[in-house]
Amino acid sequence: MDATNLADLYELPPLAWADIRKRLDVGVEQRPGSGGPGRHTCWLTTINPDGSPHVTAVGALWVEGTFWFVTGARTRKGRNLARDPRCSMCVSTDEFDLVIDGTASQVIDSALVADMAQRYVGEGWPARVDDTGQALTAAYSAPSAGPPPWHVYRVTARTATALSTVEPGGATRWRF
User: Fold this and answer.
1) Is 41 helix (H, G, I), strand (E, B) or coil?
2) Residues 96, 81, 57, 142: is their CA dihedral positive or negative?
3) Is 66 in contact with 154 (CB distance < 8 Å)?
4) For residue 41, which of 56, 61, 98, 111 sits 20 to 30 Å off, Cα-Cα?
5) Considering the chain, what percentage of its residues have pLDDT values greater than 90?
6) pLDDT exceeds cutoff 90 at 117
């Protein structure tokens, strides 16, 4: 991993990726009152067919050092990712703002899909594995997720940039 201190102009120390991961490992709940300015919202950016960005909120989870999310195949983000897996995931915590650039890949391993279903249940969404074993279903989801089934995606980071929101401040970019 290569780290670049983006705040050395101000003589601020670089941020440590280990500290960023440690904070994310605690969780980034999206329920109101659970962080950020009242909560944490994860934002996914995909690439539209014309090259323009498509940005939407997603119910992402940080698990084993990366973000995971779900969406239906017919949604704009689902169609974009099927055509071009490059994406960015953003989140603001009380301690930092973070952008991860990388690729999203659909997870088809039934054990991983089942694990993610249980993790979403733990977050308050009653997801369950569908009959294919490769997607999730539930009585409801976010309207932007489209109709079930919802496929699970894992983001593989290429770079990450964090901006500290607490003293002494700082900003760092990592290349993985």
Assistant:
1) coil
2) negative
3) yes
4) 111
5) 84
6) yes
* DSSP assignment of 119-145: HHHHTT---EE-TTSSSEE-S---GGG
Which structural domain, as residue segments, surrounds residue 120?
A: 2-175
**Which residue has tokens 């993610």?**
116
Sign of CA dihedral 119, 123, 127, 128: positive
The CA distance from 142 to 146, in Å, is 8
Instruction: Please give the helix or strand (H or E) that residue 97 lies within, else none.
Output: strand 96-107
Cut 0.90: pTM above it: yes
Contact in structure between 93 and 37 (CB atoms under 8 Å): no
Q: What domain count does the chain have? A: 1
What token pair was written down for 20?
């960023």
For the chain, how big is the Rg over CA atoms in Å? Answer: 17
Domain of 13: which CATH number? 2.30.110.10
Total residues belonging to the chain: 176
Tokens of 95: 């301690």
Determine the Cα–Cα distance for residues 59 and 67; give it in Å rounded to an integer. Answer: 10
